[in-house]
């Protein structure tokens, strides 16, 4: 760790703390939601941009908070994945904590503006998002340590992000928005599953009881297959309820992209391979949203 830290610069450490691959989980649902809004009557693009800012800021806040909290709890002492900022020895841990606070503050301000110009009731959703983001690995009983991280990601980076984007742009919640929110939630959760699969042994040693450490490698791989399979069942269900065939076919073109990280996870256990799988799954989620948007806008 010392040698690795010596080779790192503060800029590099902060870039790793951002976890750029995971940003797909915040961009993809907003992209998909905006495409749905255009398809179903025309969006309010200003609201869409604010939704994107909220999503990205929330993702950064969760990443920084997770980095800091894992350091404080000792979960990064035997880390096998990319270097964490707070544990790197290059960046002061308190700076990572304040970076999380700053990111959550940006999300809060953008969310407040968005709520005031659309629907004040969204303030309650915003408060729930902020609390869920901080308490994921922070607070006295972080639910990310209780095997509930997948639930958080599915709800907030899937259903809430997608349906919320559609709502702020159209002031409606539609069946298509809910279906696509389910798909985005499944793929975002698959990213977390791969992350927890990679860290399973070190998390277990540190007492971090993620879902992967609780159910083991085999069931975790089974969950990964189910999540990806459900994501690609969504366009078929949407076709039955009226989605154009060309949109369905375009989305299904993403299957080979999503299949690669699943194959890697089944074939390899080395952390570097699972890091590659995680990044490929993030690419698959973004490609899913892009192909869906293309199909809906044709």
Overall description:
With 298 residues, this protein is an all-alpha fold. It is 77% helix and 0% strand. It has 14 helices and no strands. It has helices spanning 2-6, 10-18, 24-39, 45-73, 93-117, 122-135, 149-170, 175-198, 200-206, 211-215, 217-240, 245-252, 255-267, 271-297. α3 runs parallel beside α7 and α5 packs antiparallel against α6 (122-135). It is globular. It starts with a helix and ends with a helix.
Percentage beta strand: under 5%
What gross morphology would you assign?
Answer: globular
Rounded average pLDDT = 89
How far apart the termini lie comes to 51 Å
Query: Can you count the beta strands?
Result: 0
Largest sheet: none
Q: Counting H and I runs of at least 4 residues, what is the number of helices? A: 14
One letter per element, helices H and strands E, the order comes to: HHHHHHHHHHHHHH
**Uncertain spans:** 1-6
Q: Using only CA atoms, what is the Rg?
A: 19 Å
Secondary structure category: mainly alpha
Key phrases:
single chain, 298 residues, mainly alpha
Topology:
Elements: H1 2-6, H2 10-18, H3 24-39, H4 45-73, H5 93-117, H6 122-135, H7 149-170, H8 175-198, H9 200-206, H10 211-215, H11 217-240, H12 245-252, H13 255-267, H14 271-297
In short:
This protein is mainly alpha-helical. 77% of the residues lie in helices and 0% in strands. The protein is built from 14 helices and no strands.
